[in-house]
Amino acid sequence: MLLRRKAAALALAALMGGQAAVASQTREAAEPGSLFERLGGMAAITAIVDELAAGVASDQRLSARFQGTDMAAFKKAMSDWLCRAAGGPCAYEGKDMKTAHAGMGITGAEFNAFLENLTSAMTRRKVSDEAAGSLIGAMLPSKREIVEKE
To answer: Taking a C-beta distance cutoff of 8 angstroms, is the pair 83, 32 a contact?
Structure first.
């Protein structure tokens, strides 16, 4: 329950802070003071995604969704997407979120569970509440593209 409250608080803080959706252009390098830098760069994002992958694979609310998933490909795509969302120098070359999740019937509860696992991964990696909230905020706009069933 505490984890859910923290995830909700982080998301609300990010929304109130006016965090923008993922930038449409790839950057040459991260801007000084960017979320990418505040998260700790690519090594930190990779570690967060490793924790996230382990979390969703063991979360009963999500594990069935990830059965048969090429987890190495998931981790690479997720790391690149988060890197770009955080203002880092990565290029995300995967499908757009609507196409990637089309027909999966993902529910709002599953999306929220995924964000809870991401929040938990960031907590375990000792990401600041401010940076974690900003990253969750960067992901929230994708909800309308991913969720097919509330």
So the answer is: no
Give the start-end residues of each E strand in the chain: none
Q: Could you read off the pLDDT of 40-74 as tens digits, one per residue?
A: 999 999 999 999 999 999 999 999 999 999 999 99
Q: How far is CA 70 from CA 57, 73, 81, 136, in A?
A: 12, 5, 16, 24
> Which conformational region is residue 68 in: left (phi greater than 0), alpha (psi within -120 to 50 degrees), or beta?
left
d(CA 108, CA 131): 23
Element (H, E) at 122: helix 108-124
The rounded distance, in Å, linking the Cα atoms of 34 and 55 is 26
Q: Is the CB of residue 55 less than 8 Å from the CB of residue 117?
A: yes
pLDDT tens string 12-45: 444 433 333 333 333 445 556 899 999 999 999 9
pTM tops 0.85: no
Whole-number Å distance between alpha carbons of 29 and 89: 5
Q: Are 134 and 82 in contact (CB under 8 A)?
A: no
Alpha-carbon span 90 to 79, nearest angstrom: 9
